[in-house]
């Protein structure tokens, strides 16, 4: 449609029809509950039938057949036949579940992240998705927050910017109506990852400078990449809920960052401003949200029930409604929905493309880049398949390794590690036992109860657990090596999965303790959605391979890495804390007046644990041995028109081939405001042949030295800087230079 026609359409709409466009409901409203994909507290929305057939979009309806059915049902009763928009949470893939976002980020490979976004976009677009509620680019520093699993950038704003831009571009391409493209909704505006004490939906209170420095860059990058949508967050930000925060939405997002697309609230977030005590009642919640500039109310009845009354009282609000509706209609038009309300749904293509073998093969390769080797004493990995291996632990024969968001993919169909090991290891060399469950019933029942699902009871659980561990120990006795699969339950990380204790479950620690007594090498494969506190097992095992929730092809990908077909190359994007009490912990923290440089009481330190993290940001081992030397700068001074060339020599002193993530950090030694100890400003993922030597180069320019000063200006200040290069944020070579 021409834009003129869109405006004509708007002029034909009744106020009720306009308001309907600003309301989103779950698709089951049109399917009479044959699907149950909601991600918040299920609500009785109390919408009139008239309003239901005016709504503008639906949430999480997928599958060509189903999408067409909903669209047909809707259009059959809608006066102006404005098609519904289908918005979805394809967080780590549709039918092919890819590694969870935090894992994807650990690839430090933009191509990996792009490719995952492309396949996810294609699969979901054929199945009816128009908009994806992704990427989540909330910076995170506190592993207690369950949603760290969804953060593509972890604790780093530089990674956040790069990934945000690339994912948006991969989803949207040049034309969002084309097959395989979807509109991207960047979320959650803003600073949701900074909820106090890592408790979900909790308070965020921070200086604007801090917000701009660390949290804003990834949102801005998504906006600059022309993301079509933004989602507001549940939290308050400096006293005002994000969803009704005029400074945030109007001044920052619309005016300063120039965002022109559609803004949607998070699930029920407009209504929740009442619980926040920031809106007196439902009518005021509607007024506050429209005044702030929220275009779509996701899953609450507030806009549906109150906007009309408000508009009749105040003409200016009707103008705002018109602006919002115009934005929504334009998005539908860009998606080509007026010409074809079914979008790119295609039942035949679904059969051919979704879960096809090429994509599965690709998925395995991409997945392998997300694994992080945390420990590898005596080069116990890669495993020699001719040794006697005993596979133990709750994940050894468990396909539920796709994470909590993979609601469209079929967990039960995934291969398990045992399935793949069986093909790989001669049966006389392979023994196995579960050893223990992921969680004891007491723990899992707390989760199930909160979900409103039936709880579990096991008779004599304690004895059974003991017996099972004993059996595993007996079996392990006859092996040369123990491969131990451990981790969180997938329901322990994701939305509403905050935890005050981020240790491995006690029964799993018990299993480690017992196996440790056998004095055999232990290789741990770790499944989890957040950095865990590993102190109580770390010194009892020889190797740890962090595989996160690796997705559909996880078992295949893990096996190939474990046996050395592929060298692990992931690096952490979040520091692993010594324990939960150390959270929030992040590498790019400010300098204190009393840095913990030596053993002395009155320094910024803990009495009971080391000050540094257990595994730092940027860290990850390889089967290769990379040696860094000869950090050189082509000159020692830089000004606003010049750059410095930095080079470093890296040797792969091993017989393995593999990738290394070469990282460049900068430190501003002195400033008008206190500057962080180190900030990532560049990285390259480089392939090395066995024993290959390479010179890797970076360029430093003035943009890399800028920060937000006290007056909220983005500036670089003259003076001395340090540049660090290394394979993680701690072990680095360093040099100094000066900005003149
Ligand atoms: C709530 C989550 O916070 C958000 O990320 C998600 O996209 C919506 N629910 C829709 O499911």
3D structure, described in words:
- The structure is a single chain.
- Among the domains are: 355-577, Rossmann fold (3-Layer(aba) Sandwich), CATH 3.40.50.1700; 626-739, Immunoglobulins (Immunoglobulin-like).
- The N and C termini lie far apart (55 Å).
- By secondary structure, it is an alpha/beta fold.
- Mean pLDDT is 96; it is low at 33-38.
- Strands 9-6-5-4-3-2-1-10 form an eight-stranded parallel sheet. A six-stranded mixed sheet has the order 11-16-15-14-12-13, with helices on both faces. A five-stranded mixed sheet has the order 18-26-25-20-21.
- Helix 8 (157-172) packs parallel to helix 9 (208-224).
- Helices cover 32% and strands 18% of the residues.
- The structure holds 1-deoxynojirimycin.
Overview in brief:
This protein is of the alpha/beta class and 740 residues long.
Which descriptors would you attach to this protein?
single chain, 740 residues, alpha/beta, Rossmann fold, Immunoglobulin-like, 8-stranded parallel β-sheet, 6-stranded mixed β-sheet, 22 helices, globular, binds 1-deoxynojirimycin
Strand order of the largest sheet: 9-6-5-4-3-2-1-10
Bound molecules: 1-deoxynojirimycin
Number of helices: 22
Strand content: 15-25%
Low-confidence stretches: 33-38
Radius of gyration: 26 Å
The best one-word shape is globular
Helix content: 25-40%
CATH superfamily of the domain at 355-577: Glycoside hydrolase family 3 C-terminal domain
Average pLDDT figure: 96
What is the architecture of the domain at 355-577 at the second tier of CATH? 3-Layer(aba) Sandwich
Total number of β-strand segments? 26
Please outline the major beta sheet. 8 strands, parallel
User: CATH first level of the domain at 355-577: which class?
Assistant: Alpha Beta
CATH topology (fold) name of the domain at 355-577: Rossmann fold
How far is it from the N-terminal to the C-terminal residue, by CA?
A: 55 Å
What class would the helix/strand composition place it in?
alpha/beta
